[in-house]
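Objective 1b: paired records.
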Amino acid sequence: MELNDLWKTALAEIELNISRAAFLTWFKDTSAIEMDGHRVSVSVPNGFVKEWLENKYNKFVLRAVRNINSQVKEVSYVIGTKQLATQKNDTKYGLPTIARVSVKPANDISFSSEFELKDLNINPETSLNPKYTFDSFIVGSFNELAHAAAKSIVIKPGIYNPLFLYGGVGLGKTHLIQAIGNEIIKQNPKAKVKYVSSEKFMGEIVEALKNQEMNQLKEKYRAYDFLIMDDIQFIARTEKMQEEFFHTFNALYEKNKQIIISSDRPPAAIATLEARLKSRFEGGMIADIGEPDYETKLTILKIKMEKTGIVIPEDILDYIARTIKNNIRELEGALNRIVLTAKMNNCVPELEYVKKIISQIIYAPRKFVTPKKVIKTVADFYELSEKEILNKSRKKEVVKPRQIAMYLLREELKCSFPFIGEKIGKKDHTTAIHAYKKILSNIKSNLDLEEEIKIIKEKMYTS
């Protein structure tokens, strides 16, 4: 495998572990440029991206690269050209060279183009990816309300303002909100539409404050007819970000401009979101996107398969659809791996080999989860410190998260009740049993609690 292909495959792995918005923000315009011994050098567009990848995403990058080539021990980031380095002596970086030219998609999509970053054609003015359309969005019972609301906004902007879509990682939120923007542009090319992730928005605020350009930034955002904000939950981290977005929201709302928002949870579950923002969000339409059913997953796989031009047996598609339970992104990631294997080996892998590929996707993250990780994830979700979870406080806002932590330690890690009691507050095992049974019972009747625990588990296994 050449260095270029190694990086593309690693990117597919990284995309499974972070939000789509974060992936597009931080991995756009990156490429592997050199492998020297056990170190891979990655080209990045600027110092800001370099620092962010080193501090926040390096473990994901290194793990993804090592899953492909275990000889790699280090990944470094270099500001500069995207051009790939010339291979010395035609070395293939310790990986077997496999002929790939014999398997060709029916529509002549090459190996390279199939696995390019998916945002190369992003509109620089709107930041919209043209591949996200209503036509390519698969509708099922799990997302039909969100889809109907999105279509309604295109027909009659302002009918739901804001439109707030929420759901777990990789379920199609980004696809749907960008489809709205692309359809608006298609029908009215003069409309001022802007898609932005909350992380990008926060980055712009930081830069504007540093350069004393806040007025220009405010004018920029308040000139849009449609503002599409992805992963809004991240602005709840700081008061300044919330304040700026609140004023931007009000300015647009008062001028009857459409606001579209996505999040991994409903407004009420964003613990540190200010009441005034919760009120604004809840004043529009809130729609959730759940997990797809088997029939929908099979349909998605077949449509994606047709685009590659490679025929994959029905039993393999059936196995993927029944085994991948979490999200559509994992589903596509599994299919991409199988397509990649087929193109490299000139044949579709057998079911037993596919099972090994799927097991890597499903089970690999779980080995990184420890009791400490569970407690930290729960604490972070509810904006508490780990110390508060572990102490003996009886405050309502602490008791519930503590019981959820106990429940997850038992349900996910299969810890014994005496261990759980000792780990959390040095309590008796009966306290742990009570907490586990209470949460188990409440989940059956409390949909909000079920959603919160689902989000916590996603973060626990993917961050």
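Objective 1b, second protein:
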Amino acid sequence: MRVYVLDTTLRDGEQTPGVSLSPEEKLQIAKALDDLGVDYIEAGSAATSPGEAEGIKRIANEGLRAKILSFSRVMEKDVDLCRRCDVDGLFLVAPTSEGHIRAKLQTTPSEFLERISGVVEYAKSSGLCVDLCCEDGSRTDIDYMKRILDRVGDQIDRFTIADTVGAGSPELMAGYFQQLSRYKKLPYGVHCHDDLGLAVANTIASVKAGANTVNVTINGLGERAGNAPLEEVVSALDILYGYNTSIKTERLYKVSKLVEELTGVAVQANKALVGKNAFTHESGIHVDGLLKNTSTYEFVKPEYVGRKRVFMFGKHVGGKGLKAVMDGLGIQVNEDQFKRIFREIKSMGDRGKTITDADLLAIIDQVRGEKRKKFIEIVELRSESGNKIKPHATVVMRVGGKRTRESAEGDGPVDAAINAIMKAVGRKNIRLEEYHVDAITGGTDAGVSVQVKMRAGDKVITASGINTDIVMASVQAIVNGINYLVGG
């Protein structure tokens, strides 16, 4: 069975507290969603603001394969605003529960049904497709839904039930779609929120019961606890239940990272499929099994979502895992040296230290009695920021043995310092891919640990820095990473 994907990252996802996307950013995400293969993009709400309407119109006129929808209330003026944005249709949201109709709209179900009918007719006469969504559908009497279908079922293009506050269960949602799909034959959609952690389960149960369109967001963004995550819903439908979608799953991680970057909402480390730890292994027992047969501890292959398997170092590391990583790096040591390296990694892990690639290479150098030549060294660093000046930094460095001085601006003192270092290094193929900071003590004088992931061509390395000054901790991490990328 074919399941259609309606992505609402740009509307419901943008309603995540603290998220506000510019028209340019929304267009960038829309293009990525189209490349990913989504069937419908709910690009926003035309009634929100002139800037929002501009962003929707730009997406609608971009010539994307996906059909572009705008959120609309049950109001003719909203329909007019949507039509001016050149969208293909409306995601027409109608509060249908008794509580919403009487408390929020302060009307009666019968009076509101007349209003729904009038706006649907108006939208259809304007040449727009209509996806009629029952807001708070999971707390709506099914007989009222049947009354709606009796009135407008032959006019609308899809009938969607929203579990707006995550109050539904898989059994409840399945019951709605089983009854309604028997009552009236037309396309059905499901829109679930994750307030009780059941958004994915409720979505899948709905599909199995008759829904053929899933409403989802990248990374599960959305109000409160978020919406059903596209990556989880699509992958589960495919792998576990054999449903087909148009999603190119090998692009999921790339799109996830783009949305994370543009929204500023970090993906939790243990998030299914796209979280940092989803395909990362440290435990010796697990790594040993993976080295023998990857299916022992990986049900889903990392390549399925466009990722690679990663081995981490810490107190749980096993000897076979460490040897596999060292072999992959082309590092050869004798048996005694290997034991010493292994013990030091265990010891650092027991002290609560996260061991990066740069840490491992430093341990190996120390055990072998070697001193790695540093490509860059910081001689002096000055940074300045404030409420009336653009953050800027000046760095004096030795690069390849030559003393150099560079200055740069940035979005903050850390960004300015990193920009100055990159400018001094002058190697355009070196990229900072990930940056993460943690306080390691409490109080305003807290020490901070900065971890970075850096790339130079096909070579990737993680490195860290620790200091009470976040700028210096960041600089240490960047310098360590560059030294091992260039000289390692």
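Residues 280-368 form one domain. The chain is about 40% helix and 20% strand.
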